[in-house]
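All the exercises in this workshop are built on plain-text protein records. The record below serves as our worked example for the rest of this section.
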Amino acid sequence: MNDNMHAGDDAADLPVLTEVVDASAALSHPRKDYDTLIAELQTELASATMNLAEGMLHAAFREMEATLFEQVSNRLRQELPELIDRTLRDHLDDAGDTDDE
């Protein structure tokens, strides 16, 4: 008998639909809400896209800068000793030529 009593209590707890709901009216929103939603989504997407692009550009520039710095440093290491040697020899040769006169 307790089982029947619980079943009756459960049935009493169930909500009862008392009004007819038009499905299309329940799902539709005013046009202004859609326009606002679309505008908000466009703004959010544009902002996220710009942030992503900015981050990617900064990373690319850092990589390019590091690559260029390495290339310039390597070239200086290779060419600077010869440049210094040539400049010193030219200068000393010129200085030696003026002493002979």
The chain has three helices and no strands. Residues 89 and 95 are 10 Å apart (CA to CA). The longest helix spans residues 31-100.
